[in-house]
Amino acid sequence: MTISEINAYPAYIPTTLDIGPAQAAASLSCCVIEVKTEDGVTGYGYTAITDEEVIVSIIDNLLAPDLKGMSALDREAIAERIYWMVSPRGQTGYGSHAASGVDLALWDILGKVTGQPCWRLLGGARSEVPLYVTFGFGSFDREQLADAARHLRSDGVRRLKMVVGHHALKRVAAGASMSDILKEDIERVRVVREAAGDDADIYIDANCSLDPASAQWLDDRLKDFDIAFFEEPLRGNDTRQLANLRARGTRIAAGQNEGQLFRFRDLLTSGAVDVIQPNVVICGGLTVGQKVAAMADAHQVQLANGGAFPFHNMHLHGGLANGGLVEWHLISVEMGRSLFTDLPDRDGDVLRLPETPGLGFGANLDALREFAAGPLSKGRGKG
Ligand SMILES: [Mg+2]
């Protein structure tokens, strides 16, 4: 299983979000990493919410020349080697994205070699995982949000996530009013709660775009809407400030963009989160994801998928006993359908895991080559 070749395919994918009567243009960017072995087995890894051109450069110039000749089965040895190449002084960021893409390809290879799906290799805790559906994007107006929520409820979805504080601090820096943004958020949550009904679980996500005072102000005014968790309310996932917010009774979820184990440890030990959200396309792949899950287990903190990309994260949550909710992020699902073949589909808010060896789906090589030759996002399509 000697690695003979590693390739990176960047992709910027414009798509249309189509939720029954609610439609909007959307886009996402990602990078697919292909690892080939001398035995003819090929694995496909993946990373996203980053700059795909930077990841391609890391793979092409640093990782591919160095990892050729190693065994594709030596995931820990490769993870350690990548760490010292891209994060030698504890940097977070691009390094863990590149490491995730390689690691997922190695797990895909392991599954193909052993004839088992990755979720079973991780432990086979369950053959289907519960989903929540992320639908409430900033591009929808209130009416579209309500239409989409009603449509999803009629399609068997009870768990719904929506964005609040959409790029708030960035917009405020450009002259927007935080007060106006938050007041509109209250109305958006109100129409979703009314459309979804009292028995729906509604999650909100600020994508690290609020300051503590604004997050508290908003949270106080959303108390009547029974929010299931408030995901990444604060800039930079500041652990101390998240812990302060949580101490006021807000149920906090965070961690999707973290790439160092100590950052997850700090979120857990500081009491900053009710739900920790390692994303295997960002945190360092399934190899790191299972370590975060073990820490979460020791702290009796719930595990869930945040940051989208259910087709990779479903394996972690199906494999481990403390696996939790997987995020059916509608834009990332559409993106996955543009790049991969034989993807599983949801049944209401449940996803049955594939029995196909490896990650359980194939790469559409024509699409990968076409997207790689096309325009890059230039930082626009980061989900
Ligand atoms: Mg999120």
TrEMBL record:
Q: Which cofactor does it need?
A: Mg(2+)
Domain annotation Mandelate racemase/muconate lactonizing enzyme C-terminal: ranges: 142-252
The UniProt keyword set, sorted, is: Magnesium, Metal-binding, Plasmid
Note whether Magnesium occurs among the keywords: yes
- Top-rank taxon of the source lineage equals Bacteria
The record, for InterPro entries, names: Enolase-like_C_sf, Enolase-like_N, Enolase_C-like, Mandelate_racemase_C, Mandelate_racemase_N_dom, RHMD-like
- Record's PANTHER family? ENOLASE SUPERFAMILY, MANDELATE RACEMASE, MITOCHONDRIAL ENOLASE SUPERFAMILY MEMBER 1
Q: What is this protein called?
A: Mandelate racemase/muconate lactonizing enzyme family protein
